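Predict the holo structure. Ligand: manganese (II) ion.
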Amino acid sequence: MFKYTTIAFLLFAAVSCKKETVTPTPPAPVPPKPKVAVFTLLDGAGNCNPIQVEGVYKTGVPMNAANKIILKINVTMAGSYSISVPGTNGYGFFVKDSLTTTGEQLITLPAIGGAPVYGTINTFNISTQGNTCTFAISVEGGELPGVLDDNDHMYFGNPGNAAINLDSVNNFLMRKPYYALSYSRDRGIPNWVCWHLYPADLGGISRQEDFREDNTLPASWYRVTPASYSGSGFDKGHNTPSGDRTSTVDANSSTFLMTNIIPQASTNNQIVWSRLEDSLRRLVTLGYEVYTIMGHYGIGGTGSSGFATTIDAGRVTVPASIWKVAVVLPNGNSDSSRVNSGTRVIAVDVPNTNSLGLNWKTYRVSVDNIEAATGYDLLTRLPATLQADLEARVDNL
Ligand code: MN
Ligand code: MN
């Protein structure tokens, strides 16, 4: 039975085929597989020369047709190619095209992706056919937003008007998730660091101890490493303390970036400073929030190996005096409107040496003293009369 059925089916199929009247179309010629182009970046020695960056890279402005990079390449075999530059900060570059001639020529890679975020230098790596190179794009929009939100690290001001601008090499603004700072390339330290502290910042995360270079600095700048401090006689002193960032591993780890570190004499760091930090954190556990700015002035401190003006072969400056200004408010909202003549402002100024009294309270000064020593205007968010009032006082609680 089965056998006959099969045969019947085959016959039927054969007949059906024969009945087909449409002339079978000849198979389409298989297009020759496109050759893959062979080329080198003209100067692949790490710098993409010559590279042209076109368009505006501005906070909040999405990529458009004007955003592109132009590379010079040397083509030894024509053919198809594609280059993908992985995205950084929400955008990247991609091209898929073909090269019809050999020799030196320019190729264009349009930007793809969204709008970059405020306050960044974006570093990209191009890797193709054995060449790699790196280039950086500075995101414009260096001025701060007109009004900073509650709890913004820079809420009370931007001393010295630090700028997100590659030309501002010694007053370079870096706004990070867990603090903000003004960096000096030539001194290898932050000029100041400021941060907001409230109960949500305090958790159970332990010290990550992962001191490391900050690879968000512009690519051509010297990057201070933990080794820069080895044998110097100075501690790697935190500005934003590890203890103020214990909510997540990320938060704590961020305080170990070397852009948050200065050479600090160990008594200054481990005793006076540490106790001051503890006192401010205690206020937070009692229901306050604290805006702190920390900086320094002068050159030359005395650590365990004696007096030094610099370490790391001159690349890192040792400050002479280290200061801090903390604005203490009951934890809440609309912070600037809650500052009044009764607001506690704690300012201290401590020499960068080991010969110190151990009580931070003996180092209290007025904000005016610190403004005079540094040339900064601090707490500029506050109305002038309130600013003058608070800045003239010395905390005595
Ligand atoms: Mn607040
Ligand atoms: Mn001021």
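Residues 61 and 288 are 37 Å apart (CA to CA). Residues 371, 377-380, 387, 391 surround manganese (II) ion (ligand 2) (CB under 6 Å).
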